[in-house]
Design a protein that fits this description.
Length: 243
């Protein structure tokens, strides 16, 4: 009897082992022949392994149909080599949307002679007051700006965000502008054409900051000749959004 039970147990174990081995062989065969399934092969081929996803966060400050008022200060380089010019003024900027704005600006000029201009004037004055003999040294002719009025169109193609000392996030835009207007010089008025590149920082929905480099082209109006002048200004402005 005991031997019969032992035979039954041994037979059961042998049968289970055979079934397990057969299942394992079938599973291995399925994996080995996976590439033979044409439907699966076509699906793998159709996968776009070059697909990319672009995520752009919304702008922090809404500039659609908004008005910006700012005060500005500029340092001028170029133009008359004997005169230093600093500009104070204001700008009114209407933002049509986040990409385009139109503006109007007014600048009042503050002028003084450069070191070389002062030296030339002092030398000419001393020469003319020399009673000992003739003097052929004359003061240089200068023409300097008094005020500038500009109309401009600005385009903002690139924007990003700034982390300000881990305390807040500010949005900034890189922009370019084209402008046309009138410049009043000591000798009279003349047309002025301007082109600018700059960055506008929108600290929050009210406060704005701009840093800009501007190129200006105009003619001064000396009595004997008109000279083509090229001036470059570095401008900083601080403003507010009024609505």
């Amino acid at each position: 009897m005991k031997s019969f039970k032992a035979v039954l147990v041994l037979s059961a174990i042998t049968l289970l082992a055979s079934l397990s081995q057969a299942q394992t062989k079938n599973l291995k065969k399925d994996f080995q022949t996976l590439g033979d399934n044409q439907d699966i092969v076509e699906r793998v081929k159709n996968l776009d392994n070059q697909q990319r996803m672009r995520v752009v966060q919304n702008r922090l400050v809404d500039r659609n149909n908004r008005l910006e008022i700012a005060g500005q200060f500029g340092l001028v380089s170029g133009a008359d080599s004997y005169v230093n010019t600093k500009n104070w003024g204001g700008i009114l900027q209407y933002h049509i949307n986040s990409k385009w704005s139109i503006g109007a600006s007014y600048e009042k000029a503050n002028n003084n002679l450069t070191d070389e201009g002062t030296r030339r004037y002092d030398a000419a004055y001393a020469c003319q007051n020399n009673k000992a003999g003739a003097c052929d040294l004359t003061a240089p002719r200068v023409d300097f700006p008094l005020e500038t009025k500009l109309l401009s169109v600005s385009f903002y193609p690139i924007y990003g965000k700034l982390n300000i000392f881990d305390s807040s996030i500010a949005q900034f835009d890189l922009y370019t502008s084209l402008g046309v207007g009138r410049k009043t010089l000591q000798s009279g008025g003349t047309n002025v054409y301007a082109g600018s590149i700059g960055v506008g920082v929108w600290i929050n929905s009210l406060m704005t900051l701009r840093l800009e480099g501007r190129y200006e082209n105009y003619k001064d109006l000396l009595q004997t000749e008109n000279r083509q002048q090229n001036a470059i200004s570095a401008i900083a402005s601080v403003g507010i959004m009024v609505w």
